[in-house]
Amino acid sequence: MAIDFDLSNKMKQARDLSHMFAETYVRPYALEADELEGAHPKFIEACKQFGLGTGQAGAMAGGGKGEKAEGEKKGPKEQNRIMLLASEELAWGDATAALNMPGPGLGGPPVQLTGTPEQKARFLGLFKPNEYKFGAYALTEPGAGSDAKNIRTTCRKDGDHWILNGTKIYITNGKKAEWTVVFATIDPSLGRAGHRAFVVERGTPGFTVPKVEQKMGLKASETAEQVFADCRVPADNLLGGEAHYEKAGKGGEGFKTAMKTFDATRPLVAVMAVGIARAAYEIARDFVKESYALSQHTARYHRLAEALAQMEREIQMARLLCWKAAYLLDMERPNAKESSMSKAYAGGMVQRVTAKAIEVLGPEGVLKHRLVEKLYRDQKVYDIFEGTGQIQRLVISRRLFENA
Amino acid sequence: MSITFDVGEDLQAIVDAVHGFAEGRLRPKLREFEAQGGLSEELMREVFELGLTTLALPERLGGSDLLDIRAAVLCSEELAWGDVGAAVAIPGPRSAGFAILEVGTPEQQERLLRPFTDAERGWGLRGGLALVEGPFGLDPGLIETTARRQGDGWVLRGKKAYVQGAGQADLTVVLARDEASRAPDPWDRLALFAVQGKPDGLVPGPRHKTLGLHTGRWATVELKDVKVGADDRLGTGKPGELRAALRRTVARKKVIDAARLVGCTRAASEYAFKYATEREAFGVKLYEHQALAFMMADMATNVDGLRTLVWHAAWALDKGDEGYVECKRAHDLASELAVQVTSDAVQVLGGHGYLWDHPVEKWMRDARTLGLVDGLFFDEGE
Fold first, then answer.
1. Quick one: average pLDDT of A28-41?
2. Do A327 and B300 touch (CB under 8 A)?
3. How, if at all, do strands B153-163 and B219-228 pair?
4. How many whole angstroms separate alpha carbon B74 and alpha carbon B58?
5. Among A305, A327, A401, whose Cβ lies nearest the Cβ of B3?
6. Closest CA to B75 of B50, B99, B97
7. For A376-401, how does the pLDDT look when each residue is reduced to its tens digit (9 = 90+)?
8. Shortest Cα distance from A175 to chain B (angstroms)?
């Protein structure tokens, strides 16, 4: 083994296919989707036509062991790196594309990681190519965001059901999802040990979606509030089954499920920020090339050229931090610190780069048709969801000083 | 192969050995090196014995074939972690070697670089690279040093700026303009010449006093009719050769400097992290204060990120790409973030960090100095 940055054939293929898709079916409709506040019909049609979705992506959490398709065993595991390469391209097309790809979405990894074989078959088997169906993931509450261990949604056993009560917010595809992985607690005073994860299906009695949010960016993606009022969830939908939580002794399995998901999803989200930043950089670069073709001797041109170089450097560093986190995951090594590093850096980087891109375009930068204003609106949440930049710094610093 | 962030066992063993040397022999004496402006003879012999003076030389010239540029950046990071001042003072062909490897004929490489691996005197030999003439980078229009044909050989006349180890170099590679050349491309009117030894006409100016890296001994060098042989003009002189070689040379220099910046930055951040676990304020350890913990999280992220950028650039060079863009990118971001991280390291130590009792103030000065003081960049669009 040696340091290497070549892409394997599979990686190249994933990147190129994803780029082609993004270029043909995503980018051209990005602005319209933003105004529609939903996935563009052309995009939906293309997803169905090509059987695209996040169904296969369940394995992105480093889970799915023993679930690999026949013949997939040969060669080193590259799944997370492949996912990263494809995701950057997709986000380059439009940040909402990945969120609007049918499949279990963020709900996939916890089901993969902790679901029983029966649950995996039942919930993941639901996603068939050529259908536009979703899963969702509900952790955040009005009073528990980054401090996810303080969730207040309760669950109590009642015969062969669990009764859930509480409110979840910021749920991607929370209205249209077939099911949602919902985190609740048997007793808030137990902290992490009290957490349980359920798969709540749409139509479950007591489960409603009262609101779809209006947002600054990622407008084409659905963000919903979910309310559980004496919501009766079958005991079979407790993720991993009761044995999973008893086995754990001290508990905390529900919380660990949430956190393990982060180790895989943080670099994935971070690399989407890289895709957005790259899109902004390319628009700014092309603008400078076209607008300054005859005035490259001006002071302003030189200032812009340096600004572009700075953007490019930071994009590349963010990308490599993401690759490293995904590499460690593929090698099945701990990567919590590296995941957080990629996310912390990318979240700040994309803010700087998109703001700079607007500045480079000057007055043109804030005009809708140039797209950079949309990128600037879209990017902000990359320093917020999947753990804010501050949470990432908490994780990193705790790792730095864990033996102190 | 595919994206891999592992060093491999064989190379890791070497890197570990270099780390041990840096920790045991360089770190404890960093203030001495700074005061003396270099390494002691004893240490120079030691680094030579360890093969660290000829890291970048191929096996056919007495170097080690195991060591590609990826290996060189890994070792450079460790040495600079010990002390970046010591790292730049390590003897050997230095960047002059890069130029000779990039453009020299096999005969020239053998003749000029072989002595650096000589068991008897190799330990004390140093190369010097004299390319630029002012703070405006490498621009063929601004090279005024001339090379005039005389008999079989050449006569060099002019003034070179920011030459590391000026006055000490046993081999100086000089960029000069061939007076007689009318080549259409201005780059092709230039050539690199190897000046061996310390001829009378090669006159170093006084050593610059610098912000940091006092061991670098940068100075102006004047060439007063320095005679070199016909075979001391490097390369074959075919069109396009020189510019390509210069870009590869500068790329190599930049990626090594970037690796040193990573080493220096890592040293400073680790030093600060350790201090934060020892020092208490307001009844708790420093690292338990979130304002500092977050700053340190950013320091660690920057060090890790920069290292991957340096690895990526070294990989590009190793696979035969020109690599200038990748190396410059790594170097420029390393330069920027090293300034930030070393300054933050001083900040963590507070008033103590400002004093000579701790090395962080030195590393902060060194980090700002490294990679700028040689003035090597191309003034052209990326």
1. 97
2. no
3. antiparallel
4. 17
5. A327
6. B50
7. 999 999 999 888 999 999 999 999 99
8. 37
Q: Mention every residue, 6+ apart, whose C-beta is less than 8 A from residue B76.
A: B55, B87, B256, B259, B260, B263
CB contact under 8 Å between A78 and B312, yes or no, is no
Task: At B48, list the tokens.
Answer: 């030579």
Catalytic residue, chosen from A178, A222, A338, A386, is A386
Contacts of A39 (CB under 8 A, 6+ apart): A33, A96, A100, A220
| A348's tokens | 């700040």
Phi, psi of B355 (to 5 degrees): -95, 160
In the block, residue with structure tokens 């000069």: B176
CB spacing of B296 vs A317 below 8 angstroms: no
In this structure, chain B runs to a length of 382
Residues of B with CB under 8 A from a CB of A: 1-9, 11, 70, 273, 276-277, 285, 287, 290, 293-294, 296-298, 300-302, 304-306, 308-309, 311-312, 314-316, 319, 329, 332-333, 381-382
Q: Mean pLDDT in runs of 10 for chain B (382 residues)?
A: 91 95 97 96 95 86 76 96 97 96 96 95 96 93 96 97 94 97 96 97 95 96 97 95 95 96 98 97 96 98 98 94 93 96 97 96 96 83 46
Q: Look at residue B371 in the predicted model and tell me its pLDDT.
A: 80
Interface test with A, best of B1, B2, B299 (most A CBs within 10 A): B2
Facing residues of A156 across strands?
A163
- Other Cβ atoms less than 10 A from the Cβ of B238: the count is 8
Q: Please give, rounded to a whole number of angstroms, the shortest distance from the CA of A324 to a CA of chain B.
A: 6
**A386 counts as catalytic:** yes
- 8 A C-beta contact, residue B117 and residue B57: yes
Alpha carbons A130 and A123: distance in angstroms, whole number: 17
For residue B152 the two structure tokens come to 């079989």
Q: Could you tell me the two tokens for B291? A: 């304002």
Distance CA B323, CA B314 (A): 8
Residues of B in contact with A305 (CB under 8 A): 381-382
Instruction: Name the residue among A160, A152, A159 with its Cα closest to residue A186.
Output: A152
pLDDT digits (tens, 9 = 90+) for A285-334: 999 999 988 888 888 999 999 999 999 999 999 999 999 999 999 999 99
Task: Give the pair of three-digit tokens for residue A300.
Answer: 């302003």
